[in-house]
Amino acid sequence: MAPGAAAESNLSPSQDKEAKGEQLPGADENIDADDVDDLEDGVAAEATGTGDAKKKKKKKKPKKKKLEQTDPPRVGLSKFYPNGIYPEGQIQPYKDDNAWRTTSEEKRYLERMANEEPETTYQNIRRAAEVHRQVRRYARKMIHPGMTMTEIAENIENTTRALVEENGLESGIGFPTGLSLNNCAAHYTPNAGDTVVLQKGDVLKVDFGVHVKGRILDSAFTLNFEPTYDKLIEAVKAATETGVREAGIDVRLGELGALIQETMESYEVEVNGKVYPVKPIENLSGHSINPYQIHGGKSVLLVKNEDQTRMEEGEYFAIETFGSTGRGRIVESGDCSHYAKTYNAPHVPLRLTSAKSLLNSITKNFGTLPFCRRYLDRVGESKYLLALNHLVAQGIVQDYPPLCDQRGSMTAQFEHTILLRPTVKEVVSRGDDY
């Protein structure tokens, strides 16, 4: 074919039929649009002498790269859920007298109103829950003997801040990262200068919280690195599952405590040939959660008691259980790290200028959310212990010292948060791990 010749006069009969859109004998009837374009391009190329028709192909647009989480996780969660709708937790139907709620049109309507739009209570809680799941997945992989408590805490907190996209009191850490070891059951996080190192024989409780618009996700688990206390951990996990399963609208808190106790006490632990019963820690409890208030007023004790208070529709509970090989009762012990501004704190005159300044800083940065001394360091406070103790003495700030069973004993903890929706119970913190 001579260059520059007219395409019409040089087409073969078959090419002429192609150009007119006629079907060629034996051609694939299912040819797609891209193939037609390629064929037409090839015909034109052959007619004009500008290229090889067989090699000419239409350029395809490059595929958009899928967004992936980094390691350690640092990509904010909203990037993965741009529509503001976050994963629902595990759904459990109510039992017995409340089973009707599942099909009630009235209750289903209330759910639709509360459940479908972004920026609702449900979506705020679920966003915090998904952050918690991703952070603890990383934490379980990251934590190992030989690390300091400060390293562990800061890794967890930095990951939480990144994923929840920390923004003042709009979203952030729900409370200090609890890393209580062995006989210490709760309320320990390292202060500045802490040099404690995690050992292979330790039993570590990891208790951390995430909040979105004051809706706190409170969940905890226990790690060990050799099998001696496997049964202790199994007992506490089972007791928490009992509490989650049996909780519900109209359930009496005292009766729920009895069921938790029964499960916990069905286990025992053998250590160096000696058998220890697993005891629920009788003066610790789960609790209701209110906006910006980690302890909302109702308590779920871990033993049978006479509390006739009922759980109610719409309430949000942390079901947490603690088991021990010791006496099953904790006392305050050690340097305090956890604090929180008292909800509805009294208005009292403060004689220390430093206390007034510190209170303003606490109110601005934490509101009524719990904080620790490391968090005060982080926002630029220094030499604040005298002022902090004065705020505690005046009842404006509450201190929460470490809570420990007797020396030589071991304690474990598991915790889930549950939402008592109008039709069903949602275990919002449920994950693949627990």
From TrEMBL:
Region (Disordered): 1-95
GO biological process, one term: proteolysis
Matches recorded under CDD domains: MetAP2
Entry annotated with the keyword Cell wall biogenesis/degradation: no
Amino acids binding a divalent metal cation 1: 207, 218, 415
Compartments in which it is found: Cytoplasm
Record EC number: 3.4.11.18
Protein name: Methionine aminopeptidase 2
Organism of this sequence: Amanita thiersii Skay4041
